[in-house]
């Protein structure tokens, strides 16, 4: 029986999160850089720029989700961007992703946010299936544009 638990992470969890975060970056084709991952996470915690949730299977860390706060000017309300969601291979097919999404949704609701937004690669059908199965809707009203600096 799986003992999946999810809790909000703190700066004290940086060394637990860093290997997962590094693996997440490698999933998207980046080179491993555990030191840079650790420093990036430290900066987010130290500046209050993100909220992270950490998932465990018993005592083993198996996933994380990272939210960035934002706002809707039109709605005059708080929103969050679910920027990162990762489940390690050992944590997959155990409901970890669903539990991380639930934690993110509950957190956003507790702060009276009106929306969570995310983006995923067009080819990441596994993630798309997870999001759709948990009630997320694909945006068919807006296109996303990026300007690389």
Automatic annotation (TrEMBL):
PROSITE patterns: GNAT. Residues 4-149 form the N-acetyltransferase domain. Keywords: Acyltransferase, Transferase. InterPro entries: Acyl_CoA_acyltransferase, Bact_Acetyltransf, GNAT_dom. The keyword Transferase applies. It holds the Pfam family Acetyltransf_1. Gene3D superfamilies: 3.40.630.30. GO terms for molecular function: acyltransferase activity, transferring groups other than amino-acyl groups. This is TDP-fucosamine acetyltransferase.
